[in-house]
Amino acid sequence: MKVNLLIILIVFSLESCLGQTDKKLISNWNTHPIPTNPDSLRKYGFSFHEWAVYKKNDSVFVVDKKELPSPQLPFKIKVKKADSRDFGGRASILKVEDGYLVGFYRGEWGGALYWVSSDGKNYYKISSHEIVQFINRGGKQYAIEGLAHLGTSEGSIIEIYKPNDKWAVREHLKLPTAPAVIALDHQDNFIIITSKSLLKVGRNAQIFFLVDKGLWYAALYPNSMVIRNNIIYAGMRAGVYHYDLSTGKDSWLLPY
């Protein structure tokens, strides 16, 4: 009897683990229509689940956001007291030929963009932009920056370039609302989810509204995005947003 009970427990545990593994593949999530009911959107806004997406071996996976490792530099920086306030909040890191670009986002308390040497012994401040995410396109370095707070939502795409011995920034494009995530489509257009909209930005810096007001506008906070086979997958609170760039059709993916 005890042996049978042990076998049942082992099988149950294996099924649970396999089920969790299967659910990490976005292809095993269930497709639902985009919710429009205010009560449903409100319920999603209070969800405890913050889903994040990533691509590996040409497959799209989804995990709890807490499972994704935070970006880390391979060394400790000895920060001067005068700069200590800047070195806080959510960090973004981009490796460049002479070291690292490090961006900090602290919400309504500000942000900063720094260059750090490859050994961490030297650094300097480039700007006070609130860096949300870096992206490389055609060998050039860009970042989305901005803030959505209370009644304010604003931001831009900036280019980070090196005119002489030091890195500098210039505005590439002002965005209609604060950006949350960015990726490149197969034509190297910027695909951006802002606090309100889904945008495509062409190489000539022209903005196309793919979705003017997305369901995430109800406080679902997009945190990650990947594009595979011309399909956008965006991780956010409660579920994953799915948008077909070829057809313009979207849906809402849930693990049940």
UniProtKB/TrEMBL annotation:
What InterPro entries does UniProt report for this protein, alphabetically? Quinoprotein_ADH-like_sf
Source species: Mucilaginibacter gossypii
Q: This chain belongs to which protein, by name?
A: PQQ-like domain-containing protein
